[in-house]
Amino acid sequence: MIGIGVIGHGYWGRHLVRNFYQYNGTELIAVSDLVEKNREIVKELYPTIKVTDDYKELLNDPKITGIVIATPVETHYQLTKEALEAGKHVLVEKPLTGSAQQSKELVDLANEKGKVLMVDHTFLYMTETEKMRDLVQSGELGNIYTVDVQRVSLGLFQKTVNVIQDLAPHDISILNYLLNSKPTHVHTTAAYACAGNGEGMEDTAHLVFDYPNAKIVTLHVSWIHPEKKRLLTVAGSKKMAVCDFDAKSGPIHIYNRGADNYKPHNPQDSHTGYNLVQYRDNEILIPPVKGAEALRSVAEEFTKSIVEGRKPKTSGEDGLHVVQILDAALQSMKEGRKIEIKY
Ligand SMILES: NC(=O)c1ccc[n+]([C@@H]2O[C@H](COP(=O)([O-])OP(=O)(O)OC[C@H]3O[C@@H](n4cnc5c(N)ncnc54)[C@H](O)[C@@H]3O)[C@@H](O)[C@H]2O)c1
Fold first, then answer.
1. Nearest CA to ligand 1 atom 33
2. Which residues pair with 221 in a beta bridge?
3. Which residue among 12, 56, 102, 323 is best mutated to probe the pocket of ligand 1, counting the most ligand atoms within 8 A of its Cβ?
4. I need a surface site. Which of 11, 145, 221, 248 has the fewest CB within 10 A?
């Protein structure tokens, strides 16, 4: 059994605490939160767990092997650094930190100490994402033309980060995993604080990425949208697939549809009704996709990577790449131009 301590029992920390408590490979030993109400909830739900407002007690507890950090982004760097220096393995919430430089420091520190550094890119632990990756990587969809991601809803507005920093880490991690590559450039073509009339945090943004193995990759993130949508659409030369992460059942539809044999249009042929393309319009397949709660798989992966002494599926390096891409997307937003991403 791996002893676990969780720092942060807010909105997301609660889900992590429940999963580490229930997972049979770990023993949840202590939870720390600054807010009394949040500590009271832990005491009520898990009376045997140690509860404290001082996270250092977790770092000094020899029974704790792994620290889970579910605090606001601006605290990730300091807490992760202290935990690694105390000889603990660390699972930290996304994004790894607020800057590429800090993230790189943590990756180097984890390597130097020989400790696991894992980032909770939760969507990579969903069976929907695995199935979409299989479709892309197996070649079933053919050459990838476009990947289009939409992550929109009304709110939750954040105080310290804009909509790109809040939501895009999920999609960047999904895109890198789906395409098994990293983007070379990003262009934030539109970002605006709609609710603040241009003032304050940007609440809607459109990003375009250059990946080496897809023609066009686009992402729309927004807190100003009437409907909650988390949609991933991939159009390939053979088939197309849509994944609706919020669907109650049958989240993935595989369309045996497409348009082939593009021929440059010759104006002299226009009177003949000559088609530029030939359409294919065949069956739509809805494969069975079901699995455990993603955070249970997160708990399992963190534990197994500690026990087996290996890199986790969403390693510190992966988290660093996501932050490097985010940094470039924010620079593009400020400068209004396409930015080359430095790794
Ligand atoms: N993976 C996901 O899908 C997902 C979803 C939501 C949030 N998150 C991430 O989870 C993290 C937390 O977000 P949230 O929405 O739960 O925030 P939150 O504000 O609801 O909770 C953060 C908690 O951390 C506590 N805290 C802060 N500093 C502390 C310290 N030094 N010691 C002990 N406790 C401390 C606060 O008291 C608070 O209860 C963020 O990094 C966010 O990006 C991830």
1. 33
2. 151, 205
3. 12
4. 248
Do the Cβ atoms of 2 and 23 come closer than 8 Å? no
Measured in residues, the chain has a length of 343
Residue 123, ligand 1, Cβ within 6 A: no
- Residue 140, helix vs strand vs coil: coil
Sign of CA dihedral 151, 158, 340, 122: negative
pLDDT given at position 291:
76
| Alpha-carbon gap, residue 241 to 260, rounded angstroms | 17
Distance CA 228, CA 238 (A): 30
* The dihedral formed by the CA atoms of 116, 108, 94 and 172, expressed in degrees to the nearest 10: -110
Kindly report, residue by residue over 95-114, the tens digit of the pLDDT. 999 999 999 999 999 999 99
Alpha carbon of 33 to ligand 1 centroid (Å)? 10
pLDDT tens, residue by residue, 14-47: 999 999 999 999 999 999 999 999 999 999 999 9
pLDDT of residue 269: 59
Query: What is the mean pLDDT of each successive set of 10 residues along the chain, which is 343 residues long?
Result: 97 98 97 98 97 98 98 96 98 96 98 98 97 98 98 92 95 98 97 93 97 97 97 98 94 95 65 72 93 93 98 98 98 97 96
Pair 100, 297: CB distance under 8 Å: no
Ordered structural domains, the chain, with CATH: 2-120+294-314 (3.40.50.720), 124-291+324-340 (3.30.360.10)
Select from 9, 14, 33, 69 the residue to mutate for testing ligand 1; criterion: most ligand atoms less than 8 Å from CB.
33
Count CA atoms closer than 13 A to 315's CA, side-chain side. 15
> Which two three-digit tokens encode residue 229?
């949508």
Whole-angstrom distance, CA of residue 132 vs CA of residue 252: 8
